[in-house]
Amino acid sequence: MNSQVKLTIKTKEKGVALGDMFGLFFEDLNHAADGGLYAELVQNRSFEFDPIDNNTYNALTAWEKVERGGGKEHIYVEETNPLNDKNKHYLVIDILESAGEVGIMNSGYNTGIPLRQGQNYKFSCYAKRDLNFDEKVKLALESVEGNVYAEMLINVDSRTWTKHEVTLTSCGTDFNGRIVITTKGKGKLYLDLVSLFPEKTFNNQSNGMREDIAQLLCDMKPKFMRFPGGCLVHDGSLDSEARDSMYRWKNTIGDVSKRPARRSNWGYNQTLGLGYYEYFKFCEDIGAKPLPVLPAGYNPHQKSSVPINELQPWINDALDVIEFANGDITTTWGAKRAELGHINSFNLEYIGIGNEEIGEPFFERYAYFHKAIKRIYPDIKIINSSGPFATGGEYERGWKSAKENKSDLVDEHYYQSPEWFLTNYHRYDDFKAEDPKVFLGEYATGGNTYYNALAEASFMTGLEKNAHAVGLACYAPMLCNVDYVNWKPNMIWFNNHEVYGTANYYVQKLFMNHQGDNLIKVEAKGLDKPREQKSELFSGKISLAGNETCARFYEIKLTNNDTGEEMLYEDVVYDNKSSVKNVCNTAFENYTLSLKAKRVSGLKGFIIHFGEKDELNKLFWEIGGWQNQDSIVTANAYGRGALLTQSAFNVDTNKEYRLDLEVNGRHIRTYIDGKLINDAVDKPLVIEHLYYSASIESVTGDIIIKVVNVQEVPVTALLVLEGIEQVTVTGSIFEMSGFNLDDENSFKYPKLVSPKQKDINIDEKEFSYEFPKSSITIFRLFGN
Ligand code: AHR
Predict the structure, then answer these.
(1) Would you say the CB of residue 261 lies under 6 angstroms from ligand 1?
(2) What does the alpha-carbon distance between residue 641 and residue 306 come to, in Å, rounded to a whole number?
(3) Sign of CA dihedral 177, 183, 184, 188
(4) HSE-up of residue 393 (Cα within 13 Å, Cβ side)
(5) Which residue of the set 356, 357, 394, 442 is catalytic?
(6) Across residues 20-45, what is the average pLDDT?
(7) pLDDT(784) > 80
(8) What is the pLDDT of residues 487-503, one digit of tens each?
(9) Is 358 helix (H, G, I), strand (E, B) or coil?
(10) Which atom in ligand 1 lies closest to the alpha carbon of residue 476?
């Protein structure tokens, strides 16, 4: 216990505005949209699934033939007379045997279609018949065994595509349900866009969102929501008509039957049923400012770019989305918005151009977007990009471009270890208020344990304190369907009928619920100096490997930088099958490893492992990493990785590279062919005595104080409320404490790690509080 710690909250010293600081990141990965937030229950509703999306798909994925009581059919997908040219495929049920019933059933996502007793489900489909078909069509909600929960007959009596809509009420609860469509008789029945929505969607919107997931998001009170990604934005073909096109928003609005199916870069199909109009509406429903991110005609994954003289349609996409959101109804795109049902503006304030971009072609193109947008919409805040990493060459290039172009914000992304976040608490202290603001557009500590959430909370107090430099921040990724995982960790996990927020979710929610509008000054006295953990230096095992390549390493030499002593090692051949090849186990702490390397075959480059104490504690230098585009240095401590720095570099086959890795204490430099490529210091873990921030909420006058204690012991502090007028201060305390550091929420225990709320009543202008070990505490002291 440290009784002399004193935090004086200078309630009258109002500081920088916190603006829209804490918001959401939505990316359609992990089936976050289809099979996730988007409430559609039928998978592959338009028979458009294709091996392009995923090599296990075909046009009948998630559908099954139904032949009952002797009925026989031939079902197939054709494209001869489609519903429209965007929705080319449809199902044909060719009845072969008139006895019994024939048809199809859809099994939805996960274990099936979730049905709840007494709930209504809105069915719709497009259908037509041929000359011979004259029977009714039966729609049923059923269990796997064929128990019927709802049933209804419809007449398909037209020979042209006609929309049918009915509501089914389920008489049972079953999370493995099926929608079954059957008929009998003779002839052919044609079906397309077979859809089933729960009648109850979030805010009762048609074509709306799944209520439980949406409610969790709404409860957070996010200031903004970024959409639709992530890599989803800029991966894909440059041709907006191509099946694997990049995300082009104009493909995603209007009649859902006319939205083309698209491949998602995350290995599945996007119906685009959740499109830009729905995103804007959802943002409005949850009170979040919309933040669309658009591609810049450049794909860093494939390194393809649209020629500058063909950039205008891409720039128009950006201009038009602003008009779509904000333009009055006399404008082309404003009229389109009104036609879709929203006369009023969506009040768009932010637009992102590009997602974690690397490569000069992006920055060349960004300037054109920036100029064109600012010329017409000077008040729209434009977000530039600084690559996928927290430091390094591409990061700096992004910032240079942002400063040159006077971007309003710069999108930073980093997924690092909890220790990195704790150590980098002061990351933004020296950033200047007059520079572009940071949009921390993706960050996470690599896990969903309480420890991860605690580290994130500590870092977030640092973001708040640096509101002069940090404009926006959102944790990523946000949503994950447990049966379709592309990425871990995530903030919210769900299956087809349940959802839970992680420990990280509750931290984000606390910070959003209690953000406040302006910082207020906190004067801290008696805090111990930040504690630097004693860390070992990088002696240890050195080994070599190809990075998904066959490679040869030769002229391998290790020099002791203190004594000049040199050791030579035998050549290493890496065949891309064996494990890494050990070179030596060095006791030197200051050394240079020099070697030559050649890629014999394969697509990437080399990996040098060094400073290896054991499997969980080691460093890597990757040359030609990711998609053979990077030179990266990463440190793994306790199995948790932190990327120290990155620069662009690609490796060619049969070319000789001279590689030098210079390690001096915790300072690492890498050189390729004599040129400095990476320069990084792996800082030892630093723990602050307490992490804290304070703010005031304008409307209520509430004072909000956040304190994070990451230590394994409680810390007692005297909190002094300077300048407060009330005699008695009342309020609430929201606290996360008493958990094991590795505790996690789950479907079974969805709120195991979540805050507790208690009242606070203070008669003095100061009070002593014991911050429990490993705790997050937020005081909300009522103002009015
Ligand atoms: O958040 C998941 C992915 O991480 C995003 O798509 C991408 O921007 C980043 O690399």
Answers:
(1) no
(2) 35
(3) negative
(4) 16
(5) 356
(6) 98
(7) no
(8) 999 999 999 999 999 99
(9) coil
(10) 1
Q: Do the Cβ atoms of 106 and 178 come closer than 8 Å? A: yes
Asked if residues 71 and 101 have their Cβ atoms less than 8 Å apart, the reply is yes
Q: Ligand 1 within 6 A of 476 CB?
A: yes
229 lines ligand 1 (CB under 6 A): yes
pLDDT at 136: 96
**Test site for ligand 1: of 226, 232, 356, 643, most ligand atoms within 8 A of the Cβ:** 356
Please, how many CA atoms are within 13 Å of residue 638, restricted to the half-sphere of its CB? Answer: 8
Cα–ligand 1 centroid distance for 300 (angstroms): 13
Residues 214-223 have pLDDT tens digits of 999 999 999 9
Cα–Cα distance measured from residue 208 to residue 220, given in angstroms and rounded to the nearest whole number: 19
Q: Give Rg (Cα) of the chain.
A: 29
Tokens 């871990």 belong to: 488
Residue 223: other Cβ atoms inside 10 A: 21
Which residue's CA is the nearest one to ligand 1's atom 3?
A: 230
Does ligand 1 come within 6 angstroms of the Cβ of 444?
A: no
Give the ligand 1 atom nearest the CA of 27: 6
CA distance 9 to 12: 9
CB count, 10 Å around CB of 730?
A: 12
Burial bucket for residue 723 (CB in 10 Å: 0-12, 13-18, 19+): middle
Quote the tokens at residue 12.
């009258």
pLDDT at 1 over 60: no
Best mutation site among 413, 440, 480, 646 for ligand 1, i.e. most ligand atoms within 8 A of its Cβ?
413
Amino acid sitting at position 685: L
How does the average pLDDT of the chain come out, rounded? Answer: 96
**Rounded Cα distance, 369 and 376, in Å:** 11
What confidence score (pLDDT) does residue 725 get? 84
**Side chain identity at residue 365, one-letter code:** R
The answer to whether 464 is a known catalytic residue is no
The 3-state secondary structure of 678-705 reads EEEECCCCEECCCEEEEEECCCCCCEEE
| 434 CA from centroid of ligand 1 (Å) | 28
pLDDT confidence of residue 377: 98
Q: Which two tokens stand for residue 711?
A: 């230590």
Residue entry with tokens 């007028």: 725
- Give residue-wise pLDDT tens across range 268-314: 999 999 999 999 999 999 999 999 999 999 999 999 999 999 999 99
Give the other-Cβ count within 10 Å of 633's Cβ. 28
Is residue 300 lining ligand 1, measured as CB closer than 6 Å?
Answer: no
236 lines ligand 1 (CB under 6 A): no
State whether the beta carbon of 33 lies less than 6 angstroms from ligand 1.
no
Residue closest to 646 by CA, chosen among 228, 237, 300, 298: 300
477 ligand 1 Cβ < 6 A: yes
How close is the Cα of 545 to the center of ligand 1, in Å?
Answer: 26
Query: Which structure tokens are listed for 503?
Result: 């420990």
For residue range 583-617, list pLDDT tens digits in order: 999 999 999 999 999 999 999 999 999 999 999 99
Mean pLDDT of 514-535: 95
171: its two tokens: 């008489």
The conformation of residue 533, written as its DSSP 8-state character, comes to: P
Q: Could you identify the atom of ligand 1 that is nearest to the CA of residue 442? A: 1
Instruction: Decide: helix, strand or coil at residue 258.
Output: helix
446 ligand 1 Cβ < 6 A: no
pLDDT band, residue 3 (cuts 50/70/90) = low
233 CA: nearest ligand 1 atom: 6
Structure tokens at 527: 């805090």
Ligand 1 centre to CA of 273 (Å) is 22
Contact residues for 431 (Cβ-Cβ < 8 A; gap 6+): 438, 466, 468, 469, 470
Residue of 442, 480, 485 best suited for mutating to test ligand 1, as the one with most atoms within 8 Å of CB: 442
Please tell me the distance from the alpha carbon of residue 210 to that of residue 282, in angstroms, as a whole number. 11
